[in-house]
Write a structure and sequence with these properties.
This protein has 173 residues and is mainly α. The longest helix has 26 residues. The protein is globular.
């Protein structure tokens, strides 16, 4: 386990150093904010306003998957209690203050990948763009120093998996 933690510490340091570049920090902050959850409300509303097909189905998938994902997220985060990089790595200081105490899994990453997966399952479209956005949200959390890389990988896997599971139960996947 120590070897895995050492690898995570090295990856964290490498990615975090990218935040020292002039434009990286503001971009990372903006990407991180885009994963705060507002899009989960705005996207269905925008789709409805635009008269998109299957908005009800999309909202059902998104809402049900979010209930499952948030339940898992909260349970894992508060039972595993992995310390955030700032609290776990001596001398490390994150660029922002996290909204909660624990690090694993990344809720921003999970929610972003859940939204991307739900959109792709119902509407198809620019799959690469959706997953690039979700990946950028996850990466921003490491650049800002509030998550280890493994936290974001676990979150991404959990979010996409919740969307796929609910889609399967709804007969979409």
């Amino acid at each position: 386990m120590n070897a895995l933690q050492e690898l995570e510490n090295r990856l964290l340091a490498s990615v975090f150093r990218q935040g020292e570049r002039r434009m990286v920090r503001p971009l990372a902050r903006a990407l991180s904010r885009s994963g705060d959850g507002y899009l989960h409300l705005l996207v269905p509303a925008l789709l409805a306003l635009l008269g998109a097909r299957d908005v009800g189905l999309f909202a059902l998938l998104l809402g049900t998957a979010l209930l499952l994902e948030r339940s898992l997220y909260w349970s894992l985060k508060n039972s595993l209690k992995r310390r955030r990089p700032q609290d776990a790595v001596p001398g490390f200081r994150s660029l922002i203050t996290a909204s909660d105490q624990f690090s694993f899994p990344s809720g921003h990453s999970s929610a972003a990948f859940l939204l991307a997966t739900a959109l792709v399952l119902v509407y198809g479209g620019p799959v690469v763009a959706m997953y690039l956005w979700a990946s950028a949200v996850a990466l921003s959390r490491v650049v800002l120093g509030v998550h280890f890389p493994g936290d974001t990988l676990a979150g991404a896997t959990m979010g996409a998996s919740c969307a796929l599971l609910v889609a399967s139960l709804l007969g979409l996947a």
